[in-house]
Specification:
Elements: H1 3-10, E1 14-18, H2 25-36, E2 38-42, H3 61-64, E3 69-70, H4 83-99, E4 103-107, H5 111-118, H6 130-139, H7 144-154, H8 156-159, H9 167-180, H10 184-193, E5 200-207, H11 210-226, H12 229-240, H13 252-258, H14 264-289, E6 293-298, H15 304-316
Parallel strand pairs: 1-4, 1-5, 2-3, 2-4, 5-6
Helix pairs in contact: 4-5, 6-9, 7-9, 11-14, 13-14
């Protein structure tokens, strides 16, 4: 199908590119934006923040010049930016893009933000309830096993997907039930069934071979280290101390190095391991939360253009 026909086909629609870190989502988004007269909306929660550039693998100024990008570098680290604010801002951007008869291309790995933006997503506000605080104090006295058993009594479906030693996640699920009189698994099921507000085509990028993928991540981390990652983190650490956003991968590990708790090589190894864990979580989340993703397996043994061709063929059909 010719480019002009594809442009007409996807005008005023949304293409959403998802998948784990390091699979080429940004490269694909830029290519499609140029081919389809589209504009890109960032859906990576770490890239909202100014000066978090190397550690977040943020698209460079040169890459941003190739296509219009939205919702990148919009707040400082000490400014609050919630999912609901992103939902509001992102939908305003989509409206402007569609009003211009263009395609909106949402790209990123932060699944909650993507669902909030594209679906009829309802935010459950936390209630200020003294009784909840009392229950939290009581729960904190339980062992990990006792805490998990409590969750299993309340929400056995959700308990089965959490390890009993993941104490904070178990505790949050119990408190969620006390706060909302609804189990976490029921809320997730409702989220899955929420209708999209837009005509969305979901494209997923994942890796064909894990060993090659891990090597890709290792090479990227080494490149970041040689490109000034330590200096970037040190500057932010000096300015913002232990801001919660500095707990992001690549930042928390380098901070441990700066605090002389580990060596630089140990920090880089931790970044790799945490990225591998993140990739697994992202894949699980997207496959669990969004059912209509067309997945493409990226091989690092061939040119990425081959993956792009596969995507274009899919979009043409």
């Amino acid at each position: 199908m010719e480019a002009t026909t594809l442009i007409k086909k996807f005008a005023k629609k949304v293409i959403c590119i998802v998948g784990p870190t390091g699979t080429g989502k940004s490269d694909l988004a830029i290519h499609l934006a140029k081919q389809l007269n589209g504009e890109i909306i960032n859906a990576d929660a770490t890239q909202f923040y100014r000066h978090m550039d190397i550690g977040t693998n943020k698209v460079t100024v040169a890459e941003q010049a190739q296509a219009v990008h939205h919702l990148i570098d919009i707040v400082d680290l000490d400014e609050p930016y919630t999912v609901s604010q992103y939902q509001r801002d992102g939908r305003q951007v989509i409206k402007r893009i569609h009003d211009a008869n263009k395609v909106a291309i949402v790209v990123g790995g932060s699944g909650l933000y993507i669902n909030a933006l594209l679906k009829n997503y309802d935010f459950l506000t936390e209630k200020i309830n003294p009784q909840i605080e009392e229950k939290k104090l009581a729960l904190n006295k339980l062992t990990n096993t006792e805490l998990w058993e409590r969750l299993n009594q309340i929400d056995s479906d959700y308990a089965q997907i959490i390890h009993l030693n993941n104490r904070q996640r178990v505790l949050r699920a119990i408190l969620f039930y006390y706060n909302h009189n609804k189990t976490k698994s029921a809320h997730i099921k409702e989220s899955q069934n929420q209708k999209s507000l837009y005509d969305v085509t979901y494209l997923g990028l994942t890796y064909l071979d894990k060993a090659s993928y891990v090597q890709k991540l290792r090479t990227r981390i080494q490149k970041h280290a040689h490109s000034g990652l330590v200096n970037e983190v040190a500057s932010l650490y000096n300015s913002y101390n232990m801001n919660k956003n500095l707990k992001a991968i690549s930042y928390k590990e380098i901070i441990e190095y700066l605090d002389k708790k580990i060596t630089l090589n140990e920090a880089l190894d931790l970044i790799l391991q945490n990225n591998i864990k993140l990739a697994k979580k992202q894949l699980t989340w997207f496959k669990y939360q969004i059912k209509n993703i067309q997945w493409f397996k990226v091989s690092y043994e061939r040119d990425f253009q081959e993956t792009i061709k596969e995507v274009e063929t899919f979009l043409s059909n």
